[in-house]
Amino acid sequence: EGAWSVLEHGTVAFVHDALSTFRAMDALGAAARLVEMTVEYTGQRTQFDRPIGSFQAVKHHCADMALSVEASRAALWAAAVALDGDDSDARLRAVSAAAAFTGDGASTTAQTALQVHGGIGFTWEHDVHLLIRRIKVDELLDGTVSYHRRRLAAA
Q1: What are the residue ranges in the chain where pLDDT is below 50?
Q2: For residue 66, is it within any domain?
Q3: Which of 34, 115, 132, 137 has CA 20 to 30 A from 10's CA?
Q4: For residue 124, which phi and psi values (nearest 5 degrees)?
Q5: Is this structure's pTM higher than 0.85?
Q6: Residue 155: CA atoms inside 13 Å, Cβ hemisphere, count?
Q7: Number of domain units in the chain
């Protein structure tokens, strides 16, 4: 009835790596949605009788956010492949590299999206704040960026 069982060696480490990967994927999804919302907003918001998306500085912000999302997607793909493999050292490196890279990129994307949205991004009426909060929570659970960087450096 209430019998205990012994876990196979390495199970806890595997579950931690899987949760770190899933948390980073969640942050990536929020960052990708922020990019979509920001690009849409820059086409609607006007300044000096022109959409703000026509300004070079705003274009660069959007391009940087999109690049971060795509690079994070590739890193997380490698982490997912490593989760499916048998090499725990390769898994640790792939997961920590992807979690650190994605966490940092998602946080930067969130800050940039908020900057491009301006005052409307701070309000409760816009969904930007929901995605930013989601990214911030993902940063804190299952290993911070600095934790994964330290873990990667020690590997």
Answers
A1: none
A2: yes
A3: 137
A4: -75, -15
A5: yes
A6: 16
A7: 1
Token pair recorded at residue 89: 């050292």
Return the DSSP state at 8: P
CB-based contact 149:100 (threshold 8 Å): yes
Q: What is the pLDDT of residue 119?
A: 84
CA angle 95, 137, 151 (to 5 degrees): 30
Residue 51: both structure tokens together: 């959409």
pLDDT at 124: 80
Query: Within a domain: residue 4?
Result: no
The tens digit of pLDDT for each residue in 99-143 reads 999 999 999 999 999 999 988 877 888 899 999 999 999 998 888
> Would you mind telling me the total number of residues written for the chain in this entry?
155
Percent of the chain scored above 70 by pLDDT? 99
Q: Give me the residues paired with residue 46 across strands.
A: 51
Q: Is residue 77 part of a domain?
A: yes
Domain containing residue 16: 11-154
